[in-house]
Design goal:
Length: 53
């Protein structure tokens, strides 16, 4: 086993866990979970300035 093999094995082992941790941190920061439309308090439309089309 080479150092590269060990590095790839560790990356595969921890990739899913790290992804879940980052998503949980983002959910906490935003105040709602991914794809949670009901608890989402912001919208793209609300951020646009009012104007005529």
């Amino acid at each position: 086993m080479t150092a590269q093999d060990a590095q790839n094995a560790l990356k595969d082992l921890f990739a899913e866990t790290l992804q879940e941790m980052l998503e949980a941190e983002m959910d906490t920061y935003l105040g709602y979970e991914k794809h949670d439309v009901q608890n989402k308090m912001t919208s793209i439309r609300a951020a646009r300035p009012a104007g005529r089309v």
